[in-house]
Amino acid sequence: MDTYSTIIQSEYFKIMVGFFVGAIIGIERQFTAEELGERMPGVRTFGLFSLLGTISVILANKFGFHEAPLLGSVFALALIILFSVFRSLYYVKDTGITTPIALSISFFIGLLVGFGEIVLSLALSIFVTFVLAIKRTVTNILKNLEYQEIKSALNIGILSLLLLPLIPDITDPFFGVINVRIFFMFLILVLFLSFTAYMALKNLGPTQGLITFSFIGSLINSEAVTANLVKISKSEFFGERETYTTISGGVLLANTTMILRTLFLTLILIWNQVDLILMLAIALMPPILIGFTKTLYRFRGSSSEKMVQFIEMKSPLAYITALRFSATFAIISFMTIGLQKLIPDLGLYLGSFMGGMISNVAVVLSVVSLYMAGTITSKQAIYSIIFGTIAAISNKIIYAKAEGADKQLIIRIILDIILLISLTLIGTYMISVLFM
Q1: Range of 92's domain?
Q2: Is the residue at 270 inside a domain?
Q3: Residues 6+ apart with CB under 8 A from 198
Q4: Does 421 map to a domain?
Q5: Where would a tag sit more exposed on the chain, N or C end, judged by fewer CB atoms within 10 A?
Q6: Mind listing the pLDDT tens digit for each residue in 395-427?
């Protein structure tokens, strides 16, 4: 046994760790007690409770006192019951059981330390402390939850844990390219990411400013953000002079975030294809970097923290929304495949561009499906995603015009779109020189 293992398994080291794992939990409880102005067990009590568990195992293993863990458990349970009764009857009339449960867990974590499970005990200690520390955050989120959103969250579990294992691992009956199970996995992933962004935006509230509104909202739907921003430009919160700079900056941020989302989603879907991810990053990083830089410069000094409308968007896991996305994905996928077969190469890029005008996420999923099926090359996959991204950048003009944006705002949006597309084309030229 080497020196490291000797130290880890020594009783002296276990005693120190045994106190430490409980003390970590006690720190959170002590801060909570001070915040509430109450008395409750803190660092020393929790540390000694976990140490009791560690010592009981040491007594059993080293000195043959095999009843020590059982007696220690009974003693710890008796102390917890006495503490709970005394606290409820004589101090705060409180019926909460979080602290007694945390004390019990501390004791059993101490037992793990005694058995030599150092890493597991430390991980459990940190996790329990984290769970205790996020009480206020969880409470605030639960207060803002609506019944429909709870159903949406449950739908994620149903889709991923119950239905996914039942989906057959077969390809579509039309072209024999799109794997049905992979398609379903992609659908769950996109809906999960969209729902997470939706909940983040909702819990941040509608007064966080245009920067937060545009960035998080665009993780869900950059087109919806653009439409809302144009509506905001007509509200009383903005004067005529600041409208064009602020709103066009929000649309620029929405487009830039959409490009970042495209890169991130592709990374998640084909994380093991390093060369393809690298090429796409080279193509998309120039518009991402310049887009964010110009957005920050444009928002500097502007009153972008005024109240904004809450994004007009339902929970992404509403059944109608999920079905609409599935239908969009299927249509874009089959359109892209059909055009590819009808007009090789050109049809693929044309289908990607047309699909990007509707949903660039669907384009990414379609192209990745084709690439994983071996139907298209990495070069075709990269160019297809880029064409879809360019279309998704361009379509903001349509949404802005549909919401009645005036001529000066349209001109600013067009100039920003030209900038992002130009930078994307420059990045594409770079990968064509370096890799193609």
Answers
A1: 3-133
A2: yes
A3: 220, 313, 315, 316
A4: yes
A5: N
A6: 999 888 887 888 888 888 999 999 999 999 999
